[in-house]
Amino acid sequence: MGSQLFRTKSIDRLIADSEDPQRRLRKTLGVLTLTALGVGAIIGTGIFILTGTAAAGEVVQEASWIKAPLLDVLLHGKDTVNVMGRPGAGPAIALSFLGVAMVCALAGLCYAELASMIPIAGSAYTYTYATLGELVAWIIGWDLILEYAVSNMAVAVGFSAYVDSLLQSFGIHLPASLATPAYTPQAGWHLNFNLPGFIVVMLLTWLLVKGIKESASANSIMVGVKLVAICIFIFAAAKYIQPANWKPFMPNGWQGVLTGGSIVFFTYIGFDSVSTAAEECKNPKRDLPLGILFSLLICAFFYVAVAIVLTGIQPYKIFLGDAAPVATALKNIGLGSIQRIVTVGALTGMISSLLVFQLGQARVWFAMSRDGLLPKMFSNVHPTHRTPHVATWVAGIFVGIPAGIFDIGTLADLSNIGTLFAFVLVSISVLVLRRTQPDRPRSFRVPMAWLIAPLSVFFCFILMAGLPVENWIRFIVWLAIGLVIYFTYSRKRSQLRDVEATESR
């Protein structure tokens, strides 16, 4: 049993399995469409929603030490921490965005090397299966399901808030029972359901089933629209900046910057979804690394610019609990016409983000199913569209219903901790392969890998420590559920186990 848990699946076998005619995906993506997928995923909810949350901080309804950041509890003890929520970064949210971009760049370099070596659907799940063994691969695959699902739930919540904002600008008011989630930390539980968020997830699920080429083309158009909207916001609002709003720049010191970074980390996680589309890439060894790094560079610039302008035109404290801070700020300074344009751009950005994350989630389910770790139906490929249609529909339902129930802060935190954990294992995998397979061709190599990869691991743990204790508890519970499923179902049905048993006879 021990040998199976840490048995790796060779890169050659992974590639051979991907060529199975019954489960082969269509190769249509190039460097531009991959970069657009990355930008589509990264620039979405974060730039339009979480910027305000991270700047203003969060206040919870009931005081408890489990609501405090883990690092605060470790340094000061659970009886002395600020239990009423999390401190905001204030105007220094721009530093949070910049710092997180640097951490993601470290992890992005590691992703780029592995993606160029192992151009297979599944992202970090596939990489760890080839390096750290089946048990670790299952853990990270289960973790990725949480990352992509919860990310999209959060985006869907933000989408609903901006739809409501756009309609209100025309004098139309949606009933709160159909436009807000059932749970928020400030108000607790109510008989509500985020219907717009649910509907958009279902429509995008249908589009993804229709085909990757159609989905990528639609995404590229939406990326163009939202980048134009962001530029309009930056240039139109910049002249309303009042430097007094930037003072104090760091109201809660570096603790606020770290906590803000832990919140906005959610905004950058889309770049790893580029690697989940590896099997549908025409030239993965060249285009995947470029797509990952280009998307990170473009998005970091826009995030910092928006953060500087947003906190300059309005005092950061007004964004507390606001799910549509950009729209609020524009309304307050009298730019109603610009507000509508930016709101349309925000909605387009969220739709493209939803699209890419649903794509990534379905590919992880597909890859795990093809390896026998999830039921075989998830690796069924549509005979006409050549997409994993069963996995895509199940993933859509798995996201759509919870998106109608939970608030954005709770969902973003869960996604963050799962993603950071994935980044840690990807960074370790690079070093493992450098030792175990030093001669395997690498079209991209991490420069100074023995410095970059450990730094990636270290800073990811630092950001994880900035998340609330309750999210660590939820994350551990999620992993525990995954381990129960692995030992009761997946381990016995592992395709690698069956192959090796046949070869040993």
What's the CATH topology name?
Amino acid/polyamine transporter I
Total strand segments:
4
* Discrete helix count: 21
- Which strand order does the major sheet show? 1-2
What's the helix-strand series? HHHHEHEHHHHEEHHHHHHHHHHHH
Report the uncertain regions.
none
Q: State the helicity in percent bands.
A: 55-70%
Shape: globular
Head-to-tail CA distance between termini: 18 Å
Classify the secondary structure makeup into a structural class: mainly alpha
Radius of gyration in whole Å, from Cα? Answer: 22 Å
Largest sheet: 2 strands, antiparallel
What percent of residues are in strands? under 5%
CATH class call: Mainly Alpha
CATH superfamily: Amino acid/polyamine transporter I
Number of domains: 1
Write the layout of secondary structure elements.
Blueprint: H1 2-5, H2 11-18, H3 31-42, H4 45-56, E1 58-59, H5 70-76, E2 85-86, H6 93-117, H7 124-131, H8 134-169, H9 176-179, E3 183-184, E4 188-189, H10 195-210, H11 212-237, H12 253-264, H13 271-276, H14 284-313, H15 325-332, H16 336-370, H17 389-403, H18 408-436, H19 449-465, H20 469-493, H21 495-504
Antiparallel strand pairs: 1-2, 3-4
Helix pairs in contact: 3-11, 3-14, 3-16, 4-12, 4-14, 6-12, 6-14, 6-18, 6-19, 7-8, 7-18, 8-10, 8-16, 8-17, 8-18, 8-20, 10-16, 10-17, 11-14, 11-16, 12-19, 15-16, 16-17, 18-19, 18-20
